[in-house]
Amino acid sequence: MTKICSVILAAGSSRRLGFNKLTLKIDSEMVILRSVRPFVDAHLGSVIVVAGPDLKLIAQELNSLPVTVVYNEDHITGMSSSIVAALPWIREAEAVFFHLGDKPFIGTGLLSEMVEAYRAERANIILPVCRGEKGHPVLMRVAPYIEEMTGLHGDKGLREVIEKHKEDVLFIETDEGALFDIDTADDIRSLTERGYSVEKGES
User: Fold this and answer.
1) Does the model's pTM come out above 0.85?
2) Average pLDDT of 13-36?
């Protein structure tokens, strides 16, 4: 079976909210747990979670799952450093999912669709879209882009790699779960308006 790893980027500081958004509880489950679990349940390969200053808290929340939590000592420099921090764990993989830890509404169904497209279409990059907007996760074949990943810096993450290789991208239409993330108080209010129980995370 194709070896497909997953990397969940969870080293952000959540400055706008004043507490770590990954610790926000939606229906009594932390956002980080809801974001990581689908990749474990998909049984694709190893799952790497890249954390920053809240490493211990995140590791404790995920201790029931078979994941590896990695510390990004350069987290303050931006998202790209978290991708670089994960590279030692994915170099031998054929492909890798990259996902953001503050996107808690991804299901295993989408992951399965993306893997099926990857295998059937032999596309190097699979990207979900909703109403024309690009979402997450992204599934990438490792070998063609590993060197470019090594040179990433700043907060752009994989965007510059994907933009550079537009011809390699296959888009998969999906629902708004691929788009929804938690950045502001308005995002949190929208959850309660949708009927979710929301509890503030730890500072």
Assistant:
1) yes
2) 86
* Number of domains composing the chain: 1
CATH of the domain at 170: 3.90.550.10
* Residue type, position 82, single letter: S
Residues of the domain holding 60: 4-194
Please state whether beta strands 47-51 and 29-30 pair in parallel, antiparallel, or not at all (unpaired): unpaired
In angstroms, the CA 168 to CA 164 distance is 9
- Alpha carbon distances (Å) from 52 to 12, 14, 60: 7, 11, 14
Q: DSSP letters of 80-136?
A: HHHHHHHHHHHTT-SEEEEEETT-----HHHHHHHHHHHHHH--SEEEEEETTEE-S
Residue 199 placed within a domain = no
Per-residue model confidence as pLDDT tens digits over 82-105: 999 999 999 999 999 999 999 999
